[in-house]
Specification:
241 residues, Cytochrome Bc1 Complex, Chain D, domain 2
């Protein structure tokens, strides 16, 4: 004797059969929209949360300008954060499982951006401090074996291809922090580590002077990094390989 299917159960089965094709159709139509979200602009949202929508950096100096920096430099930093040779927990976690091609895409994306530079910082340093900073940046200190910053970072401080970053538009607090970390051995670059050689020859007051003077400079008319020029560089530098 066959069992009767209750009316409510039969209604549920029929409704399911009617709804199923609609669900399949809705999913197939949603795929293109999802693919549009899977763009590089969407993927870098984790970066722009801290570094600004166009990589322009923030006023507090802890999140530097990354827009327009050489792609090779940005890629090297992302790899260093991923592999733990450069330590900053939020960045280490963010890129921990990203493969090299993905990191290179991110680097090339921000290298192409050229948003306006932030306004100059208010003058707080004494004239003598700014004068010392200007000398170190433009001429160096031969007595200490410190080359001029412009010898590597470019005459207008916009960096040098492929791996030397621009200093224009970077807040003084960030410059102080990074030079100090290099000097005490917390930050490293590919050997030969030319920045380590420079930073270990700078005193606290030298670092403060360089950072203060750089923070007062107007934005460059042409923000593009200079072409590679190994001849003019005072030291061999692993970042330029």
């Amino acid at each position: 004797m066959r069992k009767r299917i209750s009316v409510p159960l039969l209604a549920l089965v029929l409704a399911s059969l009617l709804v199923w094709p609609l669900c399949v159709l809705a999913q197939s139509e949603a795929v293109p929209a999802f693919k549009q979200l899977d763009s590089l602009e969407a993927r870098v949202q984790g970066c722009v949360t801290c570094h600004g929508q166009s990589g322009q950096g923030t006023n507090n100096g802890y999140y530097p300008r990354i827009a327009g920096k050489p792609a090779g430099y940005l890629y090297n930093q992302l790899v260093a954060f991923r592999d733990g040779t450069r330590r900053y927990p939020p960045m280490n976690y963010l890129v921990a499982y990203l493969p090299d091609p993905y990191l290179r895409e991110i680097a090339e994306y921000f290298a192409k951006l050229q948003p306006p530079f932030a306004a100059r910082e208010p003058v707080t340093a004494e004239p003598a401090v700014l004068a010392r900073g200007q000398k170190l940046v433009n001429s160096g200190d031969t007595g200490k074996g410190v080359p001029a910053c412009v010898a590597c970072h470019g005459n207008t401080l916009t960096g040098m291809e492929p791996g030397i970053p621009g200093l224009a538009g970077v807040r003084s607090t960030y410059i102080v922090a990074q030079l100090t970390r290099w000097r005490v051995g917390e930050r490293h670059a590919t050997e030969p580590d030319c920045m380590k050689r420079v930073a270990t020859r700078l005193s606290d007051s030298d670092i403060a002077a360089v950072a203060a003077w750089l923070g007062q400079q107007p934005p460059p008319q042409n923000p593009a990094p200079e072409s590679s020029n190994l001849v003019r560089m005072p030291f061999a530098c692993g970042s330029q390989r």
